[in-house]
């Protein structure tokens, strides 16, 4: 059927697999999917690495909130060089390795040394009387694939709320190129929520008087605004007005320029 066209490659799509708009490993709301007649199998599989980049960025938050991994597997942190997090009989456990040599983690798995890579986490151990403390900072949003993955969620949401025919429009060529091939530069505005709860939600797209679209959604405790217009007119407008709109909320646009 001619209406079965993939919103990404604009080729025939008649797959049976549903595409989860929010990665399952972060907790996709039930039914928040696109059918195989809207996202072809090749694109569903081929863009999965962008979902992984999004999952990786939120791994600590999802683990702390006890969100199961894909296919109901228990929560875990597995994609950090020097950190492993698992659920054990007596609760969650995290091992950090700050040594220059590999060690064995609490669950018996191999734990790589700290090498200072972007996926490594630098933990600081301090002792306060009888209490030992671990503190650590996790860099966020540095990975370009993460930005493409966030843009993918926004564009898929547009197709979900407003229909695939709109998403197939040439007006979104640059969005498709950025998500599929990493071509061009697109920006995402993010704010951290005030409540710090773990919750995922997506709101229907915003449409400007000139017919441009933007999608806002929340993943874990971070809220995103993704501008789907060719010229990124929303982002530029919001950057100018953000201090007034968002007040003292923490906000920034990604990528952060050096
Ligand atoms: Zn496709």
Topology:
Blueprint: E1 19-20, E2 33-34, H1 41-46, H2 48-57, H3 59-64, E3 77-80, E4 83-88, E5 91-96, E6 103-104, E7 110-111, E8 123-128, E9 131-136, H4 144-162, H5 164-167, H6 173-181, E10 188-192, E11 201-202, E12 206-207, E13 213-219, E14 222-227, H7 233-246, E15 251-254
Antiparallel strand pairs: 1-2, 3-4, 4-5, 6-7, 8-9, 10-14, 10-15, 11-13, 12-13, 13-14
Helix pairs in contact: 2-4, 4-6
This protein binds zinc ion.
Residues 6, 8-9, 11, 13, 40, 42-43 line the site of zinc ion.
Give a brief outline of the structure.
The protein is built from seven helices and 15 strands.
Shape: globular
| Gap from first CA to last CA | 48 Å
Helix-strand category: alpha+beta
Query: Which ranges are low-confidence, i.e. pLDDT below 50, for 5 or more consecutive residues?
Result: none
The number of E-state strands comes to 15
**Gyration radius from CA atoms, angstroms:** 20 Å
Topology as H/E string? EEHHHEEEEEEEHHHEEEEEHE
Main β-sheet description: 6 strands, antiparallel
Overall tally of structural domains = 2
Small-molecule binders here are: zinc ion
Mean pLDDT rating: 90
Beta-strand content estimate: 15-25%
Report the total helices: 7
Which bin fits the share of residues in helices?
25-40%
